[in-house]
Amino acid sequence: MMTNSPFTASxxxxxxxxxxxxxxxxSLRSAINTRRPxxxxxxxxxxxxxxxxxxxxxxxxxxxxxxxxxxxxAKGRAYYAAHREEQSARARAYQAAHYAAHREERNAKSRAxxxxxxxxxxxxxVAISRAYHxxxxxxQNAKARAYRVLKxxxxxxxxxxxxxxxxxxxxxxxxxxxxxxxxxxxxxxxxYTLAEWRALCAWFGNVCLRCxxxxxxxxxxxxxxxxxxANAIANIQPLCLTCNLQKGVDSTDYRDEEMIAAFLVSRGAx
Length: 270
Known about the structure:
The protein has twelve helices and two strands. By secondary structure, the protein is mostly helical. It has a domain of 102 residues: DNA Binding (I), subunit A (Orthogonal Bundle), CATH 1.10.30. Helix 8 crosses helix 9.
């Protein structure tokens, strides 16, 4: 006898339950699939958040710095003291990188400035250079020696080229340099330049004041350095090499007093 037959009582009960279940499942699916009408979102007006202009921002920053100047300065000093080596290394690295990247530009500007201000600021520039060299003599000499060793062939080639181009100027400049250096070591004081020496020779006609012959002239100290003579243009007379050697340590002055006085006045020397 079949128990699942729809004609039996138990079969009818199961059929009823199945029908109810199907109806509930269908209703549930219908409810899930039914979409509710979407609400339209209405955007609320935003609050005005317009950014400050650059000038306003900078003005605000300036005002803050002015108001907290002492506090900011103290913080800066404290930070620098705590990170001195790091800050110094960073600054040196930045300067080296910037100089390497703009080497030609910086050199061109420096040359242009010196050319434009050489005559007007010569005394000031010479004083600054001498003061720096005196304060850093050992370092400067070491750098110069290292450069000459590193660029030995290049330096020698430059010297040969200058000597071949103008041998007399190079030799005379070398003599003047040696005399200035010797006077500095002895402590006699004074120095003169190649331009002053050329002006002195031209003033006396580019001839030796002892023999009257022209040609190659050499600067001679009227009062020798070994006797305490100053290494100034006022103590220099043009002599040829032969007369200079023959004069030796003599203090004979072959210059005309009126001519040398007029020359010194024209040069502003004494």
